[in-house]
Amino acid sequence: KSPEVDEDWPSILWFSLFLAGVIFAAVYYEEFEGMNSVGFIVALSLGLLSGLVFFIRSLTHGKPLLDASLVLYPQFTFATGLIFLAGFHFVGMVSMLAKLLGGVLKMPLADVLSFIAVLVVFVLLSAIMVAVLVRQGFKPVWIVIVALLCIALQSYTFSRFADDFSFNLVLKPAFIGIIGAGSLFIGSLLYAMTAVPPPQVTKVSAMHNVIFGLGCALSSAFFTVHVDLGRVQQVNYLREYTDEGNPLVQQSRSSQQALYIMNGYSPDDAAAAAVAGLQGSIKQQGYFKAITQTYFLVFIVSLLLIALVLLVEFIRTFKKKEQPAPS
User: What is the pTM assigned to this prediction?
Assistant: First the structure.
Protein backbone atom coordinates (compact mmCIF):
# COMPACT_ATOMS: atom_id res chain seq x y z
CA LYS A 1 0.00 0.00 0.00
CA SER A 2 1.50 3.34 -1.07
CA PRO A 3 1.87 5.97 1.66
CA GLU A 4 -0.76 8.66 1.68
CA VAL A 5 0.39 12.00 0.23
CA ASP A 6 0.10 14.99 2.56
CA GLU A 7 -1.48 18.26 1.54
CA ASP A 8 0.91 20.75 -0.06
CA TRP A 9 0.95 23.16 2.88
CA PRO A 10 4.32 24.77 1.94
CA SER A 11 2.57 26.26 -1.08
CA ILE A 12 0.84 28.70 1.28
CA LEU A 13 4.25 30.32 1.81
CA TRP A 14 4.95 30.59 -1.91
CA PHE A 15 1.53 32.02 -2.66
CA SER A 16 1.84 34.53 0.21
CA LEU A 17 5.24 35.65 -1.12
CA PHE A 18 3.74 36.00 -4.58
CA LEU A 19 0.89 38.13 -3.31
CA ALA A 20 3.12 40.27 -1.08
CA GLY A 21 5.68 40.77 -3.86
CA VAL A 22 3.15 42.00 -6.41
CA ILE A 23 1.42 44.32 -3.91
CA PHE A 24 4.70 45.81 -2.67
CA ALA A 25 5.80 46.28 -6.29
CA ALA A 26 2.68 48.39 -6.87
CA VAL A 27 3.39 50.38 -3.70
CA TYR A 28 7.02 51.01 -4.66
CA TYR A 29 5.93 52.02 -8.15
CA GLU A 30 3.67 54.68 -6.67
CA GLU A 31 5.84 56.00 -3.85
CA PHE A 32 9.34 56.01 -5.34
CA GLU A 33 10.90 56.02 -8.81
CA GLY A 34 8.49 53.91 -10.79
CA MET A 35 10.04 50.96 -12.59
CA ASN A 36 13.55 52.28 -11.87
CA SER A 37 13.06 51.79 -8.14
CA VAL A 38 15.18 49.01 -6.65
CA GLY A 39 12.31 48.15 -4.32
CA PHE A 40 9.96 47.74 -7.29
CA ILE A 41 12.35 45.43 -9.15
CA VAL A 42 13.13 43.30 -6.07
CA ALA A 43 9.48 43.03 -4.97
CA LEU A 44 8.19 42.17 -8.44
CA SER A 45 10.97 39.65 -9.08
CA LEU A 46 10.35 37.94 -5.74
CA GLY A 47 6.60 37.91 -6.35
CA LEU A 48 6.81 36.46 -9.86
CA LEU A 49 9.42 33.86 -8.87
CA SER A 50 7.30 32.75 -5.90
CA GLY A 51 4.23 32.61 -8.14
CA LEU A 52 6.10 30.40 -10.60
CA VAL A 53 7.17 28.02 -7.81
CA PHE A 54 3.60 27.91 -6.51
CA PHE A 55 2.25 27.17 -10.01
CA ILE A 56 4.78 24.36 -10.63
CA ARG A 57 4.02 22.75 -7.25
CA SER A 58 0.29 22.96 -7.98
CA LEU A 59 0.85 21.08 -11.24
CA THR A 60 3.17 18.39 -9.89
CA HIS A 61 2.09 17.73 -6.28
CA GLY A 62 -0.14 14.79 -5.48
CA LYS A 63 -2.46 16.89 -3.28
CA PRO A 64 -2.09 20.52 -4.34
CA LEU A 65 -3.87 23.28 -2.47
CA LEU A 66 -5.06 24.55 -5.84
CA ASP A 67 -5.29 22.35 -8.90
CA ALA A 68 -3.38 24.45 -11.45
CA SER A 69 -4.14 21.87 -14.15
CA LEU A 70 -7.50 23.63 -14.52
CA VAL A 71 -5.76 26.38 -16.50
CA LEU A 72 -5.08 23.81 -19.22
CA TYR A 73 -8.73 24.27 -20.22
CA PRO A 74 -8.72 27.44 -22.39
CA GLN A 75 -12.23 28.54 -21.50
CA PHE A 76 -11.51 28.14 -17.80
CA THR A 77 -8.39 30.28 -18.19
CA PHE A 78 -10.55 32.97 -19.78
CA ALA A 79 -13.13 32.57 -17.00
CA THR A 80 -10.30 32.98 -14.48
CA GLY A 81 -9.58 36.38 -16.01
CA LEU A 82 -13.22 37.33 -15.47
CA ILE A 83 -13.01 36.15 -11.85
CA PHE A 84 -9.91 38.27 -11.31
CA LEU A 85 -11.60 41.30 -12.84
CA ALA A 86 -14.69 40.74 -10.68
CA GLY A 87 -12.59 41.17 -7.55
CA PHE A 88 -10.58 43.92 -9.21
CA HIS A 89 -13.69 45.92 -10.09
CA PHE A 90 -15.45 45.40 -6.76
CA VAL A 91 -12.65 46.82 -4.61
CA GLY A 92 -11.72 49.34 -7.31
CA MET A 93 -15.25 50.67 -7.46
CA VAL A 94 -15.47 51.04 -3.68
CA SER A 95 -12.06 52.75 -3.62
CA MET A 96 -12.92 55.10 -6.48
CA LEU A 97 -16.31 55.96 -4.96
CA ALA A 98 -14.58 56.89 -1.72
CA LYS A 99 -12.20 59.15 -3.67
CA LEU A 100 -15.04 60.67 -5.67
CA LEU A 101 -17.33 61.34 -2.68
CA GLY A 102 -14.73 62.18 -0.09
CA GLY A 103 -12.01 63.74 -2.23
CA VAL A 104 -14.14 65.69 -4.72
CA LEU A 105 -17.54 66.22 -3.08
CA LYS A 106 -15.92 66.56 0.38
CA MET A 107 -18.53 64.37 2.04
CA PRO A 108 -17.86 63.45 5.70
CA LEU A 109 -16.08 60.12 6.13
CA ALA A 110 -18.97 58.68 8.17
CA ASP A 111 -21.42 59.41 5.33
CA VAL A 112 -19.09 57.86 2.73
CA LEU A 113 -18.68 54.68 4.81
CA SER A 114 -22.45 54.45 5.39
CA PHE A 115 -23.12 54.69 1.67
CA ILE A 116 -20.50 52.04 0.90
CA ALA A 117 -22.03 49.75 3.56
CA VAL A 118 -25.40 50.01 1.79
CA LEU A 119 -23.71 49.13 -1.50
CA VAL A 120 -22.13 46.03 0.05
CA VAL A 121 -25.60 44.85 1.10
CA PHE A 122 -26.67 45.18 -2.53
CA VAL A 123 -23.71 43.01 -3.54
CA LEU A 124 -25.08 40.22 -1.37
CA LEU A 125 -28.60 40.72 -2.76
CA SER A 126 -27.30 40.59 -6.33
CA ALA A 127 -25.45 37.34 -5.58
CA ILE A 128 -28.69 35.80 -4.26
CA MET A 129 -30.54 37.09 -7.33
CA VAL A 130 -28.01 35.40 -9.64
CA ALA A 131 -28.37 32.09 -7.80
CA VAL A 132 -32.16 32.28 -8.24
CA LEU A 133 -31.85 33.11 -11.95
CA VAL A 134 -29.54 30.15 -12.55
CA ARG A 135 -32.00 27.82 -10.84
CA GLN A 136 -34.65 29.23 -13.21
CA GLY A 137 -32.53 28.16 -16.18
CA PHE A 138 -30.56 31.29 -17.09
CA LYS A 139 -27.12 30.50 -18.54
CA PRO A 140 -24.10 31.84 -16.60
CA VAL A 141 -22.64 33.35 -19.78
CA TRP A 142 -25.59 35.74 -20.14
CA ILE A 143 -25.38 36.68 -16.48
CA VAL A 144 -21.72 37.55 -17.01
CA ILE A 145 -22.57 39.68 -20.06
CA VAL A 146 -25.37 41.56 -18.25
CA ALA A 147 -23.07 42.12 -15.27
CA LEU A 148 -20.38 43.58 -17.54
CA LEU A 149 -22.99 45.80 -19.18
CA CYS A 150 -23.97 47.14 -15.75
CA ILE A 151 -20.33 47.87 -14.96
CA ALA A 152 -19.84 49.53 -18.35
CA LEU A 153 -22.91 51.73 -17.87
CA GLN A 154 -21.83 52.83 -14.41
CA SER A 155 -18.26 53.54 -15.54
CA TYR A 156 -19.34 55.49 -18.60
CA THR A 157 -21.78 57.59 -16.54
CA PHE A 158 -19.10 58.45 -14.00
CA SER A 159 -16.59 59.26 -16.75
CA ARG A 160 -19.00 61.88 -18.16
CA PHE A 161 -19.47 63.77 -14.90
CA ALA A 162 -18.83 67.51 -15.03
CA ASP A 163 -17.01 69.13 -12.14
CA ASP A 164 -20.28 70.46 -10.72
CA PHE A 165 -21.87 67.00 -10.27
CA SER A 166 -23.80 66.18 -7.10
CA PHE A 167 -24.33 63.15 -4.88
CA ASN A 168 -27.78 62.59 -6.41
CA LEU A 169 -26.14 61.92 -9.78
CA VAL A 170 -23.94 59.25 -8.17
CA LEU A 171 -26.75 57.19 -6.63
CA LYS A 172 -28.31 55.40 -9.61
CA PRO A 173 -25.12 54.45 -11.52
CA ALA A 174 -23.43 53.42 -8.26
CA PHE A 175 -26.17 50.90 -7.48
CA ILE A 176 -26.16 49.64 -11.08
CA GLY A 177 -22.39 49.15 -10.95
CA ILE A 178 -22.36 47.39 -7.58
CA ILE A 179 -25.12 45.02 -8.70
CA GLY A 180 -23.00 44.29 -11.77
CA ALA A 181 -19.97 43.58 -9.58
CA GLY A 182 -21.91 41.19 -7.34
CA SER A 183 -23.46 39.44 -10.32
CA LEU A 184 -20.06 39.10 -11.98
CA PHE A 185 -18.65 37.49 -8.82
CA ILE A 186 -21.19 34.64 -8.84
CA GLY A 187 -21.65 34.58 -12.61
CA SER A 188 -17.93 34.16 -13.25
CA LEU A 189 -17.81 31.23 -10.79
CA LEU A 190 -20.69 29.46 -12.53
CA TYR A 191 -19.25 30.29 -15.95
CA ALA A 192 -15.91 28.76 -14.91
CA MET A 193 -17.69 25.60 -13.76
CA THR A 194 -19.13 25.14 -17.25
CA ALA A 195 -15.62 25.27 -18.71
CA VAL A 196 -14.25 22.09 -17.05
CA PRO A 197 -15.30 18.43 -17.13
CA PRO A 198 -17.79 17.40 -14.40
CA PRO A 199 -15.15 15.58 -12.24
CA GLN A 200 -13.19 18.84 -11.98
CA VAL A 201 -16.09 21.10 -11.01
CA THR A 202 -15.51 20.75 -7.26
CA LYS A 203 -11.98 22.17 -7.67
CA VAL A 204 -13.19 25.38 -9.32
CA SER A 205 -14.47 27.07 -6.17
CA ALA A 206 -11.09 27.10 -4.41
CA MET A 207 -9.39 28.57 -7.48
CA HIS A 208 -12.20 31.10 -7.82
CA ASN A 209 -11.82 32.36 -4.24
CA VAL A 210 -8.04 32.74 -4.55
CA ILE A 211 -8.16 34.54 -7.91
CA PHE A 212 -10.99 36.79 -6.71
CA GLY A 213 -8.99 37.64 -3.58
CA LEU A 214 -5.94 38.40 -5.72
CA GLY A 215 -7.99 40.79 -7.83
CA CYS A 216 -9.27 42.50 -4.69
CA ALA A 217 -5.75 42.81 -3.25
CA LEU A 218 -4.23 44.34 -6.38
CA SER A 219 -7.17 46.57 -7.24
CA SER A 220 -6.70 49.27 -4.61
CA ALA A 221 -2.98 49.60 -5.36
CA PHE A 222 -3.58 49.81 -9.11
CA PHE A 223 -6.33 52.42 -8.93
CA THR A 224 -4.34 54.50 -6.44
CA VAL A 225 -1.31 54.47 -8.74
CA HIS A 226 -3.36 55.15 -11.87
CA VAL A 227 -5.31 58.04 -10.33
CA ASP A 228 -2.16 59.55 -8.83
CA LEU A 229 -0.28 59.46 -12.14
CA GLY A 230 -3.31 60.85 -13.94
CA ARG A 231 -3.64 63.62 -11.35
CA VAL A 232 -0.04 64.71 -11.88
CA GLN A 233 -0.47 64.72 -15.67
CA GLN A 234 -3.69 66.71 -15.46
CA VAL A 235 -2.26 69.25 -13.00
CA ASN A 236 0.77 69.82 -15.25
CA TYR A 237 -1.54 70.21 -18.24
CA LEU A 238 -3.82 72.70 -16.47
CA ARG A 239 -0.90 74.76 -15.18
CA GLU A 240 0.18 75.43 -18.77
CA TYR A 241 -3.05 77.41 -19.16
CA THR A 242 -2.93 79.16 -15.79
CA ASP A 243 0.37 81.04 -16.01
CA GLU A 244 0.53 84.58 -14.69
CA GLY A 245 0.54 86.08 -18.18
CA ASN A 246 -2.90 84.69 -18.99
CA PRO A 247 -5.46 87.57 -18.79
CA LEU A 248 -8.20 85.24 -17.53
CA VAL A 249 -5.94 84.02 -14.74
CA GLN A 250 -5.06 87.58 -13.81
CA GLN A 251 -8.73 88.55 -13.72
CA SER A 252 -9.68 85.56 -11.57
CA ARG A 253 -6.80 86.14 -9.16
CA SER A 254 -7.59 89.87 -8.91
CA SER A 255 -11.23 89.07 -8.11
CA GLN A 256 -10.22 86.63 -5.42
CA GLN A 257 -7.67 89.06 -4.00
CA ALA A 258 -10.29 91.84 -3.82
CA LEU A 259 -12.68 89.46 -2.04
CA TYR A 260 -10.04 88.60 0.57
CA ILE A 261 -9.24 92.29 1.13
CA MET A 262 -12.94 92.96 1.70
CA ASN A 263 -12.85 90.26 4.38
CA GLY A 264 -10.05 92.02 6.26
CA TYR A 265 -6.91 90.53 4.70
CA SER A 266 -3.87 92.72 4.10
CA PRO A 267 -2.92 93.20 0.42
CA ASP A 268 0.04 90.78 0.74
CA ASP A 269 -1.98 88.14 2.59
CA ALA A 270 -4.84 88.53 0.10
CA ALA A 271 -2.46 88.04 -2.83
CA ALA A 272 -0.98 84.91 -1.23
CA ALA A 273 -4.43 83.52 -0.44
CA ALA A 274 -5.61 84.16 -4.02
CA VAL A 275 -2.59 82.29 -5.44
CA ALA A 276 -3.10 79.41 -2.99
CA GLY A 277 -6.79 79.23 -3.92
CA LEU A 278 -5.94 79.08 -7.62
CA GLN A 279 -3.37 76.32 -7.08
CA GLY A 280 -5.84 74.39 -4.93
CA SER A 281 -8.48 74.67 -7.64
CA ILE A 282 -5.99 73.35 -10.21
CA LYS A 283 -5.14 70.36 -8.01
CA GLN A 284 -8.83 69.64 -7.41
CA GLN A 285 -9.58 69.78 -11.13
CA GLY A 286 -6.63 67.51 -11.91
CA TYR A 287 -7.75 64.98 -9.30
CA PHE A 288 -11.30 64.97 -10.65
CA LYS A 289 -10.15 64.58 -14.27
CA ALA A 290 -7.90 61.66 -13.30
CA ILE A 291 -10.82 59.86 -11.65
CA THR A 292 -13.17 60.33 -14.62
CA GLN A 293 -10.48 59.14 -17.04
CA THR A 294 -9.96 56.01 -14.93
CA TYR A 295 -13.68 55.29 -15.10
CA PHE A 296 -13.55 55.66 -18.89
CA LEU A 297 -10.73 53.08 -18.98
CA VAL A 298 -12.94 50.66 -16.99
CA PHE A 299 -15.74 51.33 -19.49
CA ILE A 300 -13.52 50.41 -22.46
CA VAL A 301 -12.22 47.25 -20.73
CA SER A 302 -15.79 46.16 -19.92
CA LEU A 303 -16.84 46.48 -23.56
CA LEU A 304 -13.80 44.51 -24.69
CA LEU A 305 -14.61 41.76 -22.21
CA ILE A 306 -18.19 41.56 -23.46
CA ALA A 307 -16.88 41.14 -27.00
CA LEU A 308 -14.45 38.43 -25.84
CA VAL A 309 -17.14 36.54 -23.93
CA LEU A 310 -19.39 36.55 -27.01
CA LEU A 311 -16.48 35.43 -29.21
CA VAL A 312 -15.54 32.59 -26.85
CA GLU A 313 -19.17 31.48 -26.62
CA PHE A 314 -19.52 31.58 -30.41
CA ILE A 315 -16.39 29.43 -30.86
CA ARG A 316 -17.60 27.00 -28.19
CA THR A 317 -21.02 26.64 -29.85
CA PHE A 318 -19.44 26.22 -33.28
CA LYS A 319 -17.15 23.44 -32.03
CA LYS A 320 -20.11 21.62 -30.47
CA LYS A 321 -21.96 21.68 -33.79
CA GLU A 322 -18.90 20.26 -35.58
CA GLN A 323 -18.65 17.28 -33.20
CA PRO A 324 -20.19 14.12 -34.68
CA ALA A 325 -23.31 12.86 -32.99
CA PRO A 326 -22.82 9.74 -30.86
CA SER A 327 -23.81 6.58 -32.72
Answer: 0.73
